[in-house]
Amino acid sequence: MTTMGDVARIAGVSASTVSHVLNGTRKVNTATRLRVEAAIEQSGYRRNGVARSLAAGRTHTVGLSISALTNPYFNSLVHAVERALSAAGYVLIVGDSHDELQSEKRVTDSLLDRQVDGMIVAPAAGSERLTLPDITRTGTPLVLIDRGVDIGCDQVGPENVASARALTEHLIELGHRRIAVLRGLSGISSTTERFDGYRAALAGHGIAFDDALVLDGASSTEAAERQVHALMSAGDRPNALVSLNNAMTIGALKALRALGLSIPDDVAFVCYDDFEWADLFEPRLTAAAQDVDTIGATAVELLLRRMRGDDAVPQHIRVPTAMRHRNSCGCA
Amino acid sequence: MTTMGDVARIAGVSASTVSHVLNGTRKVNTATRLRVEAAIEQSGYRRNGVARSLAAGRTHTVGLSISALTNPYFNSLVHAVERALSAAGYVLIVGDSHDELQSEKRVTDSLLDRQVDGMIVAPAAGSERLTLPDITRTGTPLVLIDRGVDIGCDQVGPENVASARALTEHLIELGHRRIAVLRGLSGISSTTERFDGYRAALAGHGIAFDDALVLDGASSTEAAERQVHALMSAGDRPNALVSLNNAMTIGALKALRALGLSIPDDVAFVCYDDFEWADLFEPRLTAAAQDVDTIGATAVELLLRRMRGDDAVPQHIRVPTAMRHRNSCGCA
DNA sequence: ATGAAAGCGCTAACAA
DNA sequence: TTGTTAGCGCTTTCAT
């Protein structure tokens, strides 16, 4: 393996000069720069990023801890983050927390060990008493994404309350009174907020809240499928359903199809989270679509600012969703 | 920041002892080990992975260069790889090559600079004359995934020819003669092989090959949508279509829906690549499903073997696909 | 059972 | 404009 020392020897200069031509960190005489470049070329030298990171004290690396990477929503979020980061010259290392505290701890520990220059976390339930303090203790800049927790750091996520409320109200305006809801994983803010939006819609229209219509979908396709199947095969089923995230939507659709129930005739349906192929589902889904690109880009922006040493007061940013009006809700 | 030296001082031992208790690399007296552990606890020490990598000469990191990360197929492939790797104690760093040579070069360069211990690449067209030689030159163990190129290294990918042939033959057996095909990005082996399978099916049944029925979908949803739209709005349209990857399938379905054509009545449809939600599409798609988990796990297995120094002759592994018989093809 | 010391390959003062 | 030198924090031989 060729090192900078080898290159220096070939070019007849010092290692420090080689380093400077490589990084453009100081003016180098054109003639010597050319010699160095020739030597690099000739020797097939590649810099050692590990040594570089150790000496410089920064890795140009950012860690992301997130769950359910196979979920298309998180998947696009990861790529929105990656795009913004690589535009800024950073490399992203992703770890899957599986929305489970111990697993999240493993991921963030490994990221911290690798000396990431910054960290973006979609916190699992309970994060604030284990992993988050660990991170802040190291002084690594941190921003929370997708969900918030009550800790002093930057946060970016989608707007939840008003969106879930709007979704529910749409159903109400269509004349529905018995509206079931698929609620997500407990302990995370997005679940609470979206559920609050649902309740607010009912309350705002004088509809009594009925606990029997609340399904615990646990943000999972399988759980949602089971719950919807159970509720819908019982007598006296609701005539409308709102699903509070995309994974649960899939489960709900599977269950409804299995039961032979038609949307929107038997059940009107709306959901939080859009699908890239929403047009190909039958029926086309009325959904509140998150703006993942903005969320990802904003998270990166906030993080880079912190990494530059900015210590302004932490921001909590909410990115609005867009209502996609299609036909699963049952309006013309 | 606390270093190993600090811990050593607190525990009243040498740094080397601290290192050994941390890594279990040599026997340490229980009493001293306890003192060291206490010192670690008390000081909140975290090891510096960068320094560790530099000293040890290995990073416990593997690089993956792949394209179209938002494509669900590649997405699951990435996660299959990640799962296998993290089970073996490695961290995966992923880069998106966008199936474009310069971009692939940027990704692999960055991975190599970071001193990954091994590399998995889904080669873009032309890779064998630019990035791949670069990688082998560094001596970094390499395995190719998804597509092959004629270079002496391990490769794992799906079976293409027989699968595409079976798909096409199914249509033929249903009585179709004018069968259009959506062909993928040119220059990559999977495109060639799947297309070969299509031609072989026609040839095997004495059906003349018709160039006008070959659509260049470029493995992209948009291109496929345009091409299918054009072909299907012209007169004398084919009555069957085979799509050779999932991105193009989406495009085809969009175009057909836009034209108001019904599957399978107006056009029988089969595709290479399955969808997780294939049951929710209308109609349910008859597809050849790749076994991503096996492909990913096999790639990792081959790579780890090379990383251990095995220098057996390179293997080319093909993982069979599974035929999912549903109703877009038009059989009962 | 433990320690001393020599690096790993690079960056960045500080000198010249 | 360039070189010298002292680390960065760890691993690992070689002693003891």
UniProtKB/TrEMBL annotation, chains A, B:
Name the SMART domains for this protein.
HTH_LACI
Name assigned to this protein? LacI family transcriptional regulator
GO MF terms here are: DNA-binding transcription factor activity; transcription cis-regulatory region binding
**HTH lacI-type domain: from which residue to which, for each copy?**
2-56
Q: Which organism is it from?
A: Mycolicibacterium canariasense (Mycobacterium canariasense)
Checking InterPro entries in the record gives:
HTH_LacI (IPR000843), LacI/GalR-like_sensor (IPR046335), Lambda_DNA-bd_dom_sf (IPR010982), Peripla_BP_I (IPR028082)
* Record-linked Pfam families: LacI, Peripla_BP_3
User: Which keywords appear in this protein's UniProt record, sorted alphabetically?
Assistant: DNA-binding, Repressor, Transcription, Transcription regulation
Does the keyword field hold Acyltransferase?
Answer: no
Entry-linked SUPFAM superfamilies:
lambda repressor-like DNA-binding domains, Periplasmic binding protein-like I
Q: Does the keyword Secreted apply?
A: no
Where in the sequence is the signal peptide annotated? none
